[in-house]
Every structure is written in structure tokens, then in C-alpha cells.
Design brief:
- The chain has three helices and eleven strands, in the order ββαβββββαββββα.
- It is elongated, with a radius of gyration of 18 Å.
- It folds into two domains: 93 residues, Nuclear Transport Factor 2, Chain: A (Roll), CATH 3.10.450.360; 65 residues, Roll (Nuclear Transport Factor 2, Chain: A).
- The protein has a six-stranded antiparallel beta sheet, covered by helices on one side.
- By secondary structure, it is an alpha+beta fold.
Length: 185
């Protein structure tokens, strides 16, 4: 997908609260077990909340790390994505801020593969949005869609979770040549 100018980045407020991803267990390919956030011990959740004030959990995993059971929690705070690895006793072992595009390749998908709830959240946030491209990737237990489209005279690029929570939104007014081309076709 084309990248938009950093100076046009628009901060978006959270559309609605997200308690837990609709995922109920199962192993992924790295030996991690995806678990509901509610099943993570309270002292582990509190350690994450202390490390990242205001975090809103969006996913959790349990795994063996250096021979011990640890929890990996993903969440959003201040329009940023965080992933923390926490020992069962509440000790923070690792913190990562931001989506890691290098580790997880985006996969092109058809617009028909984008869930209706994701499309609905976008049209609520950007009335008249017409999507043109879609990509998907996994970030821990979180599914992220990167969608490109237009509404009015603006181009948009949006990162949104599979539950409809907007993580990042960029808005750019296309140059004169592109606007002229759109008028012709």
C-alpha cells in the first residue's frame, strides 16, 4: 500500500471499548496458547496496567519462556499498541511498543474478505468511504486490517482490528493530477 505523508496523520479517538478479543484458546505455531484476558492472573494484569497506564487489553497468550510459564498481553493506550511479556509473579520481562511490521508480513486480501463489522466501523468513522485495497496481518493474538480508500476529496489509510477498533488513521488530499484523473474516470 502506498504510504502517506507523516504530517497528515490524524489522531483518532477510540470508537468503542474493547474488552476481549473473541478468541477462546488454541495453540498457534510458536507454542503460545491464546487465552481470554479474563483468565490471566490479576497480579499479571495489574503489572501491565502499572507499566502502561490506561492500557486497554485486546489479547493474551500463555507460553513457556526460558523454562517458566509467562503471559504475553497486548493492548492499546494513547493510540499506541503495546505487547508485554510478564512472569507469573508479575515481573515485567519485556515490553514492545508499536506494531512490528517487520515480523509480520501483510497479506493482500479481497475487500469481500473484510468482516462486515470492520467495514461498518469504518463507514461510521468516515462517512462515504469507498475501499479500494485491503491487507491483513496477525500481531500476537490481534488481527489487524490495513485498508485504503477514498471519501470526498481525501485518500485514507486505516489500521483497524478485527473487532472494529481503529488503531491508526491517515488522511491525505491527493494532488491535482490525481483529482483530475478521478474526474475523468
Amino acid at each position: 500500500m502506498k504510504k502517506f505523508s507523516k504530517s497528515i496523520v490524524v489522531a483518532v479517538l477510540v470508537l468503542f471499548a474493547l474488552a476481549v478479543l473473541p478468541v477462546y484458546g488454541g495453540d498457534d505455531h510458536d507454542g503460545e496458547t491464546i487465552i481470554p484476558v479474563a483468565s490471566v492472573p490479576l497480579q499479571v494484569r495489574k503489572a501491565v496496567e502499572q507499566a502502561v497506564p490506561g492500557i486497554e487489553f485486546v489479547g493474551a497468550e500463555r507460553e513457556k519462556y526460558e523454562g517458566a510459564m509467562v503471559y504475553e498481553l497486548q493492548g492499546l493506550a494513547g493510540n499506541k499498541f503495546y505487547e508485554l511479556k510478564i512472569a507469573a509473579d508479575g515481573k515485567v520481562l519485556q515490553t514492545r511498543e508499536g506494531l512490528d511490521d517487520a515480523d509480520n508480513e501483510d497479506e493482500d486480501i479481497s475487500l469481500a474478505q473484510v468482516p462486515a463489522g470492520v467495514k461498518s466501523a469504518l463507514t461510521d468513522a468516515i462517512p462515504g468511504l469507498e475501499l479500494s485495497e485491503a491487507e491483513i496481518r496477525k500481531e500476537g493474538s490481534l488481527t489487524i486490517y490495513e485498508l485504503t480508500g477514498t471519501a470526498g476529496d481525501y485518500d485514507y489509510e486505516v489500521q483497524i482490528t478485527g473487532t472494529g477498533k481503529i488503531l491508526h488513521l491517515e488522511q491525505e488530499k491527493p494532488n491535482v493530477f490525481i483529482r483530475f484523473f478521478r474526474l475523468l474516470f
